[in-house]
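Why should sequence recovery work at all? Because a backbone constrains its sequence more than one might expect. Tight turns favour small or flexible residues, buried strands favour hydrophobic ones, and helices have their own preferences. The token representation captures these environments compactly. In the example below, the structure is given first.
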């Protein structure tokens, strides 16, 4: 039985490819909070704050317990995943060696890629990690916590994209990266690391004039908008 709790895209769960009904948005938000913190106890007060923010209802605890009961029923037949009651809060439990939450699988793959692996293996691991993303993290979940967490997770995705580009450039694959890096540089016009990768990819592709022009435009943007030269 293959279980996946998705956070890297729409918050959802699948067992052997079949969707699990996780209920309404706030109930899914509760599961998302527990899944982000999988293996750690989340106090009830913190759960309420992350689910409702400043709009916490008078019977927040009772509603949380109701959500927990419904999620437990929804996950009853899901192997290796459970919501456990702990002193002062709740914890999503599972097998740390085989994480069911895609976020933790992503982080595990990235950590392995940044370890003693050679460049070819690192490229494979980072590619596998980035394939886990199905869209913006925590899609379908609103609120202050979700927005802040979404931004943090997007930074993790961008870091993995940076690392993969570095590895592939060291492998001499710049020609295959030009389109991707030009698009990434367009989305992050003041990111010097992306710009540097784009320049190197263009150079490896034999497009030296384009590489110099890309660097020139970066310098103009940095001077005009930040008052600084490229590092």
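From this structural description, the recovered sequence reads:
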């Amino acid at each position: 039985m293959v279980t996946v709790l998705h956070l890297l895209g729409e918050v959802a769960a699948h067992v052997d490819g079949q969707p699990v009904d996780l209920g309404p948005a706030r109930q899914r938000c509760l599961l998302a909070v527990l899944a982000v913190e999988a293996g750690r106890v989340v106090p009830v007060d913190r759960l309420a704050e992350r689910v409702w923010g400043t709009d916490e209802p008078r019977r927040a605890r009772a509603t949380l317990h109701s959500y927990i009961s419904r999620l437990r029923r929804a996950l009853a037949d899901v192997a290796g995943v459970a919501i456990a009651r702990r002193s002062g809060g709740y914890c999503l439990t599972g097998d740390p060696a085989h994480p069911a939450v895609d976020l933790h699988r992503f982080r595990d793959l990235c950590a392995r890629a940044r370890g003693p692996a050679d460049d070819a293996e690192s490229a494979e691991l980072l590619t596998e990690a980035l394939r886990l993303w199905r869209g913006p993290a925590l899609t379908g979940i609103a609120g202050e916590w979700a927005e802040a967490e979404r931004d943090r997770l997007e930074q993790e995705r961008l870091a993995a994209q940076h690392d993969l580009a570095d590895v592939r450039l060291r492998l001499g694959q710049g020609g295959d990266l030009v389109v991707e890096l030009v698009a990434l540089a367009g989305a992050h016009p003041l990111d010097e690391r992306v710009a540097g990768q784009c320049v190197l990819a263009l150079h490896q592709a034999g497009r030296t004039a384009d590489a110099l022009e890309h660097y020139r435009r970066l310098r103009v943007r940095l001077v005009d908008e930040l008052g600084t030269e490229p590092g």
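A few observations help interpret the result. DSSP finds nine helices and six strands in the chain.
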